[in-house]
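note to self — DONT lose this again. spent like an hour looking for the file last time. sequence + predicted structure for the chain T wanted, 228 res
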Amino acid sequence: MANERILVVDDEEDILKLVAYNLTRNGCRVTCVASGEEALAAARAQPPDLVLLDLMLPGADGFAVCRALKADPRTALIPIVILSARGEEADIVAALELGADDYVTKPFSPRVLVARVRAVLRRKSEPAPADQARLALHGLVIDPGRREVTAGGQRVELTNSEFRLLHLLARRPGWVFTRNRIIDAVRGADSAVTDRSVDVHVVGLRKKLGAAGRHIETIRGVGYRLEE
């Protein structure tokens, strides 16, 4: 770790001091806040390289903060490490399903915490394969590794063909894809995609994506593109 900006969110002053001291010793620039509302404001004003987040906060709790950060394209790709006294399996699973990258329970070893933060930052810095990188635009977050899509923070259930189509368009926003190109990319063993069915898939995709669906543009006589 070298000069990464870490946002630490916890309502216990002793914890904030302990975490800030150990992260600073390892070369990080640390900002500390004590509530969920402060965390969201700080992350949106100057997105950090990582958020270290407690779950039991006054006002908006850690789950709400995590959900809001992942719903906002400006902050959706920021790694989140949960640091909480809540060690029940249900809490850990819920946080990870909301998009948290790791979960550390209290009481904790500062050295272990720093090592876990370092590991998450290292994964972030390693370029993902082009077809596996998470994408965030127009209120959408597309995670090919998990095959998940959220629109405005809400999980969207897509068919395999719809997911492949959206991922194809999102990887090259502004680029026009012909129907034949879409057929080649979307067709899988589980589906038969034809020129006519591409249009049907687009209609269904727009409907499921809600307000974000309007960004899928029809290029008359050619095909489709996702607005840049």
